[in-house]
Amino acid sequence: MGVHEGHRARMKQRFESEGLDGFQPHEALELLLFQSVARRDVNPLAHELIDRFGSFSGVLAAGRDALGGFPGVGERTARLLSFLPEFFRLYRAQRASDRPVLRNLSTAQDYCRHLIGSGGGDRLWLMHISGSGSLLMTESLPAPGGYPLPRQVVERALSSRAQALVMASGRENALLEPHDRAFAQTLAELMPMIGVTLLDNLLLDGDKTVSFRREGLLAAPLREPSSPLCLMECRWLWEGEEAGNAGNTGGLRPPYHPQGA
């Protein structure tokens, strides 16, 4: 066994016995590089990548083109490192313990910022929600033109058996565009036909969020006053933790109504 092979074996054994808690960022990156770079000392490369991109997370977020153009990084390694953030997002989205109760705009915004992170403009994220606000599942659809076909969203909502849906996507400056209203109106008409409420569509860019419901692009369909979904619709724009408590109306702020809505 050569020097490099012995180093790799020791690193892997250390990870299996201790996990990543005791690893420096460059050492964690070395473990990843082991998967795509055979029989080569990748310690210098790990240091150089972190120096260039600022941190372990910066390396993973650099993107395939930037990584592929870095000396010593081949196409296979660039693919591996650039694909990982997408797998991490899927893991977070589908991990049951991380699923919040999305009963108001405030909690939905926080969840979507964590889920989408930076960028994300080429996909539309769908949060499938039960009538009580529990998140059933999160998934995304390709949206190269800003949105997928409305039919695709309806099919996914039918498949999940959700009672409500929140959509979200990343967009520079979170600016509304002309096709936003048409897409929102089409889905707002289609969803009630299958028994699903479109609670909101969110555009996000960092801390900035545009809510279609707050902007008046969505109107809640008529429901029985005692229906859980009716309570969610009424309280969606109320802020604070109390907004998620359908049985407690004390101390809640009245909902925001945009002018002309």
Polypeptide structure, described:
The protein has 2 domains: 89 residues; 145 residues, Cytidine Deaminase, domain 2 (3-Layer(aba) Sandwich). 43% of the residues lie in helices and 13% in strands. It has 10 helices and 5 strands; from the N terminus they run αααααααββαβαββα. β4 and β5 form a beta hairpin. The C terminus is likely disordered.
Low-confidence residue ranges: 240-261
Order of helices and strands: HHHHHHHEEHEHEEH
Mean pLDDT: 81
Instruction: Find the CATH topology of the largest domain.
Output: Cytidine Deaminase, domain 2
Structural class: alpha+beta
Strand order within the widest beta sheet: 2-1-3-4-5
Strand content: 5-15%
Oligomer: single chain
Task: Sum up the overall morphology in one term.
Answer: elongated
Number of helices: 10
Radius of gyration: 23 Å
Give the distance, in angstroms, between the N- and C-terminal Cα atoms.
73 Å
The second-level CATH architecture of the largest domain is 3-Layer(aba) Sandwich
Helix content percent band? 40-55%
Under CATH, the homologous superfamily of the largest domain reads: Cytidine Deaminase, domain 2
Query: Class of the largest domain, according to the CATH hierarchy?
Result: Alpha Beta
Domain count, please report it.
2
Q: What's the β-strand tally? A: 5
Largest sheet: 5 strands, mixed
